[in-house]
Amino acid sequence: SPPLLILVTRSPYGTEHVYGAIVFAVACAHQGILTRVVFLEDGIYSLTGKQKVSPDSVGFNILDLINKVAGNENLHLFAFTPSFQRRGVTKNPNMNAVLDIGYPGLGKLLFYLPGNVLATTQRVLIV
Question: Is the pLDDT assigned to residue 113 strictly greater than 80?
Fold first, then answer.
């Protein structure tokens, strides 16, 4: 299967777009599809806070979800550092599974296929 690149550009709360994108990425990775997620533009707000879910809630907040899914060999998470700089915010220090990248790293993800994939194309989804 061609690899999947998901660009998360939306604010994490108010809609289910970001949460759904992460769950979709996990499902693809679980099916053996190399999946890479890049948080950029307003999507970086998914990685900044210390959101808490009430103790009686059955769901996860986005930070918890990211921490739970980290470690899947087919799922790679990235944060576009120029988006943090432009907004004057920083990544939550607990987000170790999300690697920081700049313009060269983003370009590599967009225009070069991973070396361990036999496909000649990749899918790109913008959320």
Answer: yes
